[in-house]
Structure formats: structure tokens, C-alpha cells
Specification:
With about 350 residues, this protein is of the alpha+beta class. The protein has twelve helices and ten strands. Strands 1-4-5-8 form a four-stranded mixed sheet, covered by helices on one side. Strands 2-3-7-6 form a four-stranded antiparallel sheet, with no helix packed on it.
């Protein structure tokens, strides 16, 4: 599925901003300094007007456009939870009924999101939950949390305030050096429980966004590899002239573009084809968890010795791709059929 001219314009705007704001030197400095949140960077991102464009009042953009933003976030390894924040603050309210929406919005704004696999809630009393969340995205500066708990008939999403007594937050490190994560402990914390339908929409849409982020990463490492293979010489000829290298990078490119096509279809399905949303969400995150790390590993290989060094950026992409893959383990029934479906698109 091709992006529209409006989506291309949005993509170019976000790409220029991220290229100027988050160069490699910035990421390196941020990693070595241990900075977990950059308010100046967040404020400059806010000036793009993305939150207004995705808000229920503005309705300038659809979910498909948020998928495009997620791709660019992945390309740049943007270290703040930009798409998570837009999703939770501007998109999630549209999935909720009026009563639940009011209760959700009363919890505050700027939302942390915990992947389903990281939530182990030990007990639930009425509308209170207790348990552990091994890590969540976007906790820095957030006032509320979206998590997942198991209920009869399927998993349900919930939201709670992070300032409520009973919430203990602990910053944590991770394989992904460009993202600040935190673990949480909940003890009899009041929550707003989403309906089964709303939970399905939230979890499916979030999976699609993270898959789009992985696609952006794979597209960028392919570009980096192509540039390197044109200039690096071995035996007096560019490395890219060797057939074995050409085949390796061509296979990686094909995998990346197949993932991109599936990501755009899945993002489109959220609002334009709801009956296909759950299937495409499961397929795309399963495919991203497989393709993301493998493409980054291929890129490291074709770079030769420099690809394995700390000073080169490709390992940062591999780290984030693997972190996302871990967050969405594909131990679901029929996952092989979903992967087959994804590969055929």
C-alpha cells in the first residue's frame, strides 16, 4: 500500500525535524550522560502541532498518519515516547465510550504504556489492581498509565494515575539504550477498566504502531548499508560489487519493504477496515518481531568489522528492534499462519 501525497508531506516534515533535532551525536551524548528526559526536545516536537492534528477536536489526521510518524520515530531512534504520547492522549479517547473516556481523561495526560507481556497482575479487587509491571514506555513525565490485565474472556486494558498511593515506580535499564524505561509495582490501585471492544482496539492499534516503528528502523539501516557498500572498497572495487553482499542486502531490503507494506495496510485498517484490524495487528507485530532484528543483523554483517563497533550506530537499531520483539512475544495460537500471511503480502 502506497502512502498518499498528504502522508508523504507529513513524513517529510517529521523526518526533517528529527534529522535536525536527533543526530547521532545527540544520541551518543544522551546515552553517555544518562539523560532520561529532554524537556527542550519535547517542547520543540510539540511545536510541530502533531497532537492537535491527531486530537478528537482537530481530526486533521487519521491513525494511518500516526503510523507514518511512528516509522520516522524508528528511523531516527527518537529517544522520547512521541508516538506513545500522541496515541494515548489523542487516539485512545476515541476508542472509549463517553463515561469511560471522562474517567480516563480525569487521570491526567501524558501516558505511559506497558506492553501486554510485561504486566503480571497478581490480584484484582473490584476496580483496584495489584501486581508487577516489568517495564513500560514513556513513564518519564507521565501522569497516567495504560496497562493490561487478564480477565475471564480475554485480556483487558486499564488506566490508572501514577500519582495514586500504591504505585511504586523504579527507573530501569534495558538492551535499548535510546529509550528510558521504568518498572512499576501496583498495590490496590484504583483503575479505569476498558471494555472488551475498547481493549481490543487499544492493544491492536498499539501493536501496529510499534511494528511501524520497527519498519522505520529497518528502512534506515538498509539505507546506511547501501551508502556504505557504494563507497567502501575491497580489492580495488566497491564492496557492493560482490554478489554475495548484493544478495544479502537485497534479501534484507525485500523483507523490510514487505514489512512496510503490511504496516501501512494494518494502520489503514484501524479506521478504514475494522473487521480486519485484529488479524492485521497480530500479523504485523509477528512479522516485525521476526524481520526487525534479522534485517539489523544483516546490515551489521555487510558493514564488516565497522558494523560490530560501538562507535557505529547500527547496534543501536538492533537493540531497539530486539527490545520491541521481546515486548511482543508471539506465543499465540496460529502465529505460523499469521507469519505466512505476512510474508505473502
Amino acid at each position: 500500500m502506497q502512502i498518499t501525497s498528504d502522508q508523504r508531506e507529513l513524513r517529510d516534515l517529521v523526518r526533517r525535524f528529527l534529522a535536525d533535532s536527533v543526530p547521532s551525536e545527540y544520541l551518543r551524548k544522551r546515552i553517555t550522560s544518562g539523560l532520561r528526559r529532554d524537556d527542550a526536545l519535547l517542547e520543540s516536537a510539540k511545536q510541530l502541532g502533531l497532537e492537535e492534528g491527531f486530537s478528537a477536536e482537530g481530526e486533521m489526521f487519521t491513525f494511518a498518519e500516526l503510523g507514518v510518524v511512528a516509522e520516522e520515530v524508528g528511523r531516527a531512534l527518537f529517544p522520547e515516547a512521541l508516538t506513545e504520547r500522541i496515541f494515548a492522549d489523542c487516539v485512545v479517547p476515541g476508542f472509549l465510550d463517553p463515561e469511560t473516556r471522562a474517567a480516563y481523561q480525569a487521570l491526567g495526560s501524558h501516558t505511559a504504556i506497558a506492553p501486554e507481556s510485561c504486566c503480571t497482575l497478581a490480584s484484582r479487587k473490584s476496580k483496584k489492581v495489584s501486581g508487577e509491571i516489568s517495564w513500560a514506555w514513556g513513564v518519564e513525565g507521565a501522569s497516567r498509565l495504560i496497562g493490561v490485565m487478564k480477565m475471564t474472556g480475554g485480556n483487558r486494558a486499564f488506566a490508572c494515575s501514577l500519582s495514586t498511593p500504591g504505585v511504586t515506580l523504579t527507573p530501569t535499564s534495558s538492551l535499548d539504550l535510546t529509550t528510558a524505561l521504568a518498572s512499576l509495582s501496583l498495590t490496590d490501585v484504583p483503575v479505569v477498566v476498558f471494555s472488551e471492544d475498547a481493549s481490543s482496539k487499544v492493544l491492536d492499534a498499539f501493536s501496529i504502531l510499534k511494528a511501524c516503528e520497527v519498519y522505520g528502523m529497518t528502512a534506515r539501516v538498509i539505507e546506511m548499508s547501501a551508502e556504505y557498500l557504494k563507497t567502501r572498497e575491497q580489492f580495488g572495487v566497491p564492496v557492493g560489487a560482490f554478489q554475495a553482499v548484493q544478495q544479502r542486502i537485497a534479501d534484507a531490503y525485500a523483507s523490510s519493504e514487505a514489512l512496510g507494506a503490511l504496516c501501512r495496510f494494518a494502520a489503514w485498517s484501524v479506521t478504514s477496515s475494522p473487521e480486519q484490524r485484529s488479524l492485521t495487528a497480530r500479523a504485523v507485530i509477528a512479522h516485525a518481531a521476526e524481520v526487525g532484528p534479522s534485517v539489523c543483523e544483516a546490515a551489521i554483517q555487510v558493514h564488516g568489522g565497522i558494523g560490530f563497533t560501538w562507535e557505529y550506530d547500527i547496534h543501536l537499531f538492533l537493540r531497539r528492534a530486539k527490545a520491541i520483539a521481546v515486548a511482543f512475544p508471539q506465543g499465540v495460537e496460529g502465529v505460523e499462519d499469521l507469519l505466512t500471511f505476512a510474508r505473502r503480502l
